[in-house]
Design goal:
301 residues; alpha/beta; Arc Repressor Mutant, subunit A; D-Maltodextrin-Binding Protein, domain 2; five-stranded mixed sheet; 12 strands; 24% strand; transcription
């Protein structure tokens, strides 16, 4: 710890706010300072770091290259400090709180009933659901850019850095257009003869069906790949293509699109939908409250 630079943390707080707002006036208001005091503090920070940090252009304070590099390191650290200080306080849902959740379009769809109920009960709670761009974004959880990940896996996995809550297990079905002629008898031979749509949330070239077929030394032909599960059934309308996807959603969407539901002619492993969060936040009152609300809504032990 002896090599930590000796710098006033309030100056770094000013840097973070000014970097975000690009305005000394707005920064002074947010920090409850006079504009003069804010300007003096910025001068001290410039002298301490030996860089101009922000340059005024057209009434806007633009960050220098050094300030951009500094922000990459300092802002995540300040978030961690802020979170650490908050964790010492009890969570009060009557205060304004925001939860950031990463999910695929499918797991976001699964979350909708819970989130609707939560936001109806607690008017000061807000939720931002962002696209889950990788299966488990561990770094984003660690850096507090995310509170929760709602993802899925096909086999039980343990992580030293992540805590997880099992939500539900689901199976797969195969969809096809009901007007396909001749009537579809979904044998393995027919399954392999047809063209397929692949749902690839993270742009992977193979899915669980392909990996399962490979174990039998079989290959299907994927003619279309999409990261969007909720819109994938539309792709097989008026075609002779096949789509293998979670039964939970398929059973709701198939009647609307005039699609037939079949059991795949191979044993595709069930998927498991889970909530993940970073283990260092396991006792964070904010997360504990959210997870407890989730457990109660779904009656999970």
């Amino acid at each position: 710890m002896s090599n930590i630079p000796n710098i006033d943390l309030n100056l770094l707080k000013l840097f973070a706010v000014l970097y975000e707002t690009g305005s000394v006036t707005q920064s002074a208001q947010i920090l409850h300072m006079s504009q003069s005091a804010c300007s003096h503090a910025l001068t001290r920070l410039r002298e301490r770091l030996n860089d101009e940090l922000f340059v005024r252009v057209n009434n806007q304070m633009l960050a220098t290259n050094y300030a951009h590099r500094l922000a990459d390191e300092v802002l995540p650290a300040l978030n961690v400090i802020t979170q650490g200080l908050k964790e010492s306080k009890d969570f009060d849902p009557a205060d304004n709180h925001r939860f950031t959740i990463a999910a695929t379009d499918y797991t976001a769809w699964c979350l909708k009933p819970f989130l609707s109920d939560l936001l109806k009960q607690f008017s000061n709670i807000s939720v931002q659901v962002i696209q889950l761009e990788q299966r488990i974004p561990t770094l984003a959880l660690k850096e507090l850019k995310l509170d929760i990940v709602c993802g899925f896996e096909h086999k039980q996995e343990k992580s030293e850095s992540l805590a997880q809550l099992d939500w539900f297990e689901g199976e797969y079905v195969t969809l096809c257009c009901q007007h396909t002629k001749p009537p579809l008898n979904l044998t393995m031979k027919e399954f392999l003869r047809r063209d397929h749509v692949l749902i690839a949330p993270w742009n992977e070239s193979r899915g669980i069906v392909d990996r399962t077929l490979a174990q039998q030394k079989k290959v299907r032909r994927v003619i279309l790949s999409t990261p969007h599960m909720l819109s994938a059934p539309v792709c097989v309308q008026d075609t002779d293509w096949l789509l293998t996807m979670p039964a939970k959603y398929a059973k709701q969407i198939a009647p609307r699109l005039n699609l037939a539901i079949h059991s795949p002619p191979l044993k595709v492993p069930n998927y498991h939908v889970k909530l993940y969060w970073y283990r260092t936040r396991h006792h964070d009152p904010k997360l504990q409250w959210f997870i407890e609300q989730f457990r109660q809504f779904h009656n999970l032990n």
